[in-house]
Amino acid sequence: MLSSRERVNLVLQHKETDRIPLDLGGSSVTGMHVDTVYRLRQALGLDEPGTPVKVIEPFQMLGEIKPDLMEALGIDVVALAGTRTAFGFGLEGWKEWKSFGGTPALVPAGFNANPEPNGDLLMYPQGDRSAPPSGRMPQGGFYFDLIIRQPPIDDRSLRVEDNLEEFGPISDEELEHFKRTAERLYTETDKAIVLNVGALALGNIARVPGPGLKHPRGIRDVEEWYISLTTRRDYIYQLFERQTKINLANLKKIHQVVSGRVTAAYLSGTDFGAQNGPFISPKTYRDLFLPFHKQINDWVHQHTSWKTFIHSCGSVWALIEDFIAAGFDILNPVQCSAADMDPHELKKKFGDRMTFWGGGVDTQHTLPFGTPDDVRREVRERIKVFGPGGGFVFNAVHNVQALVPIENVLAVYGTARECGRYPL
Amino acid sequence: MAIFEELRQAIIDGKAPAVKELTERGLKEGLKPAAFFPNVIIPAMDEVGRRMRECEFFIPEVLIAARAAKAATDILRPLLVGDESVRPAGTVVCGTVKGDLHDIGKNIVAMMLEGASFRIVDLGVDVGPEKVVQAVREQQADIVAMSALLTTTMVNMKAVIEALVAAGLRDKVKVLVGGAPVTEPWAHSIGADGYGKDAPAAVELARRLVARA
Lengths: 424, 213
Hints:
The structure holds 2 protein chains of 2 kinds.
Chain A: H1 4-12, H2 34-43, E1 53-57, E2 62-63, H3 67-73, E3 77-80, E4 95-98, E5 104-107, E6 121-123, E7 135-137, E8 145-146, H4 172-188, E9 192-196, H5 222-231, H6 233-258, E10 262-268, H7 282-303, E11 307-311, H8 317-325, E12 330-332, H9 343-350, E13 355-357, H10 366-369, H11 372-386, E14 392-393, H12 406-419
Parallel strand pairs in A: 1-5, 3-9, 9-10, 10-11, 11-12, 12-13, 13-14
Antiparallel strand pairs in A: 1-2, 4-5, 6-7, 7-8
Chain B: H1 2-12, H2 16-28, H3 36-53, H4 59-80, E1 91-96, H5 104-115, E2 119-122, H6 129-139, E3 143-147, H7 156-166, E4 174-178, H8 184-189, E5 194-195, H9 199-212
Parallel strand pairs in B: 1-2, 1-3, 3-4, 4-5
């Protein structure tokens, strides 16, 4: 019997193994909303009713996937992530909170659990309520969206440093955390470890507004950012150049302390795709992003055994060849419901060069609105398409969201375990 | 007119300062403010829509062109107040539905509709059904355009349609829906009049819906 780690390693080398490995919670883009985690744990009888679930990622409101849940579902992957949230406060000092969906949860001390008079929940950078809030969850909502705090832009005084404030050398404490956690996960579990640094990626629109900064400067408005990719190319290029230098130095330090324990590194979480096509032209990707993605990937491939993981929602068919040229080994979330993202075509054209990590079931339609039979049918079909020859780690397309019927979630993992045995 | 041609190109190329300067120059030379819409703004934004559909333009280029078009309309609109000869193509009440704060897609659709000479009443994000009903009534809207990015909020589109029915306004407006998880069958299932898969499609649909009304 293979260990989970061996299983994942083999499929990443595009080899068939005993079964297709499964991911849930291995990264901040392959997780599950806290409300759904709670209902799943209850359905599986893992907890007494009312037992709270930890919110380990308060921006997307992801719930903790604990080892007992991983065992119950047959999960092969585990996350190695930092100690800070998108809002800049730490994952510590847990307190009780009930989500708008009624889920008993535990949230970090920095999480503002007091709603505004209109019922909305605001999140403050670094948990500091004297600073302007940086996130909002509308009353009855399930996620936070970032509040844009764009100071007036004067191109003559725009400085690259202003957009670099959130990037700096990793602290000794953080390194110690990575070291200890990697050791623990490596010795206490047989799971493949995914290093999560994707949020620090170049131009990640979920971070551009600077949600962890008290007074962000530079270009922080989302529309202004997209416009700048065309109108302020030199600025963006310089910014990416500097950011890559910082990220690479940090990655080298992390590598020193986690060394061979990591299987894959989630390096970029920037979304390049919308529903109908890429956000930016392939030329913009090649000019602004590719050189720096390549620099990081080349270093990883020269100095480590890690496979590199890029996440991009949406229709990215037109960019995948460039992602491969930039050295990425793994594509996530494989949003087959977007334009030009047909599973057969993806596997045929890129399957021998790119591992598909995701694409297992559609989270826009089938999972929330289909029947368990619809779910089973789709999971079986995706396994048949993506599974042959390895190069496939099973996961839903992106995080499993709130309000998804639990019988559908159970159908996903039940079918993936049953039908994912090689030979398919 | 050479100046119209130059202006059209400046909008497509997203050169807002040039657009402002050319618009002012055109007015000074005696061109009627109303003439800019059929001769410049609408054809320029149609071309932007075409390029977006053909994957020649992506989000940055569309935003820059829309911003350039706005440089012209900001000058022209105040000059058209009270001018009965200039009627918008229709009035569109738009917004992102209750519980949803995502507005980039909605904003791009609104900009493109405005470029196609629709009057836009943008209710913003997290918009409840009662607010839509009130706006439709007060603004005498022809179209309600709703957006949602989340699977947890797209269901709220149905609540808006139900509220329009309850208020006796459903027959008076056309309802257009869009957003990443929204599909044509979904739009049908909730009783919407149309689904726009992207901004150019939304403009085309809005034109068809008001022409039919």
